[in-house]
Automatic annotation (TrEMBL):
PANTHER family: TELOMERASE CAJAL BODY PROTEIN 1 (PTHR13211). Pfam families: WD40. Keywords: Repeat, WD repeat. One of its GO terms (biological process) is Cajal body organization. PROSITE patterns: WD_REPEATS_1 (PS00678), WD_REPEATS_2 (PS50082). This is WD repeat-containing protein 79. InterPro entries: SWT21/TCAB1_mRNA_Telomere (IPR051150), WD40/YVTN_repeat-like_dom_sf (IPR015943), WD40_repeat_CS (IPR019775), WD40_repeat_dom_sf (IPR036322), WD40_rpt (IPR001680).
């Protein structure tokens, strides 16, 4: 990527961005002491409250079909912390910037909530399957500012984070020379290669050589999610298994398989600086914590609410002390190592209690997206899901018959989330550190 060049746009003024926001993540050391090349990660959830900082939402067009429902399907902070990338159903990809006054300092409880606007909007025609930032993205180095998307009926595409232009694409072809869309995509930890998961193969592309050149590994089930750390690659599949690979040995052999989820694996993430992996699956209320050295069974099982096939993201803080996850009940759960050793060994069979540290009821709808800021005590959350129309109510409206009794409608909403009238679709930034003064914008833990 060093061969790419472009002028630095005026949208981001590098002089106004603190060193900790733009420093190369590979040069950061998370510890108790701050040195010239060290960064002390701030304490999170110290006030046991969330302060709403900024928000934005999307609505259906005036002439759009009723089945067109724009809602968040994921959000991720850029590695330098200056902007957030989000995918909206039926509305493509959006890039929103973090307000510059939040780059440093603390906030007051009476701060006015900002209304976010997208600085980049890509109107994708198909469903976006997966997306990820270049791991060393830095706003002061324009060639590094890019992200990948993979979507329906399209190759893997690399987009410029300054102007939203298409830089290049990476194409995977099957045995009959037909182009296949990747179901999942991720950069390797050094940023030099792209690992993409397909229905029957893993394919590895060289970042500096776009096109159709790749090496591949045959797999038994579709690769629904990918997570990398150092030379380790974890591949989740729709058949509920997780397969571990050594990056240099993909194409020849694998480390082993991990079993236990009740549905297809939708999201995974390594705990920074450890050999532990956290995984979640569709219609599975459990988050598994694995030690890949003893991968036959999970170390711990954490509980969240996942009632649909939708991907529910979770995130782990860069310091490795906090695990945060949303759920279809709209509650954000936080597990903290300062209160519970959530990645120590427990008996998975008898672990029936909810040992969560904090609960934050943020939404009435599904909270499907979570992303912790890489340097600041700020959390990005996204909400929404597809809501089916109640067939009984629709039939009564079409035939002009008597409307369905409100009490019966409430009972349907209470037991069947598909017909719920509580529909939310918004991207929100929350302050999770110390607050100078409390006010009504705070969401307290329960």
């Amino acid at each position: 990527m060093e061969n790419w060049s472009m002028e630095t746009p005026s949208r981001i003024n590098a002089e106004n961005i603190p060193q900790t926001i733009t420093q190369n993540p590979s040069e950061l050391t998370l510890g108790s002491a701050c040195t010239e090349n060290a960064f002390q990660y701030p304490a999170l959830f110290t006030s046991k409250s969330f302060l709403e900082l900024s928000t934005c939402s999307w609505s259906r067009g005036r002439n759009a079909n009723e089945n067109i429902q724009p809602y968040l399907r994921g959000c991720k902070w850029s590695p330098d912390g200056t902007c957030c990338l989000s995918v909206v159903n039926n509305d493509g990809v959006h890039v929103t910037e973090l307000p510059s006054e939040l780059y440093q300092g603390v906030v007051c409880g009476d701060r006015i909530i900002d209304v976010l606007e997208s600085v980049i909007h890509l109107k994708e025609t198909g469903s976006v399957y997966d997306f990820c930032w270049y791991p060393f993205m830095n706003s002061t180095n324009p060639p590094s500012c890019c992200w990948l998307t993979t979507k329906q009926n399209s190759p893997i595409q690399m987009w410029d984070a300054f102007d939203g232009s298409l830089r290049c694409s990476y194409r995977g072809f099957n045995a009959v020379d037909e182009m296949e869309p990747a179901l999942s995509v991720s950069f390797t930890s050094d940023g030099r290669k792209i690992i993409a998961g397909y229905k029957k193969h893993l394919r590895i592309f060289d970042v500096e050589r776009p096109g159709r050149e790749f090496t591949e590994q045959k797999i038994s089930s579709s690769a629904s999610s990918i997570s990398t750390q150092n030379n380790l690659v974890a591949v989740g599949s729709w058949n509920t298994t997780i397969t571990l690979y050594n990056e240099s040995e993909i194409g020849t052999k694998k480390i082993g398989d991990m079993y236990g989820h009740g549905g297809g694996v939708t999201h995974m993430k390594f705990i920074p600086g450890t050999l532990k992996l956290v995984s979640g699956a569709r219609k599975d209320h459990r988050l598994f914590v694995w030690d890949i050295r003893y991968y036959r069974k999970p170390l711990n099982i954490l509980s969240r609410v996942v009632n649909t096939n939708q991907r529910i993201y979770f995130d782990i803080s860069p310091c490795g002390k906090y695990l945060v996850s949303g759920g279809t009940d709209g509650v954000v759960k936080v597990w903290s190592l300062d209160h519970i050793d959530w990645h120590s060994s427990l008996d998975p069979v008898n672990n029936t209690t909810d040992d969560v540290t904090y609960k934050f009821p943020l939404y009435k709808d599904c909270c499907n997206s979570i992303s912790i800021h890489p340097y600041r005590p700020i959390l990005a959350t996204g909400s929404g899901q597809y809501h089916f129309t109640d067939p009984i109510k629709s039939l009564s409206e079409k035939t002009n018959n008597e409307a369905v009794d409100s009490s019966s409608d409430d009972s349907i909403n209470q037991y069947d989330i598909r017909y719920s009238s509580h529909s939310e679709n918004c991207l929100t930034f929350w302050w999770t550190g110390d607050v100078i003064e409390l006010n009504k914008n705070l969401r307290r833990c329960v």
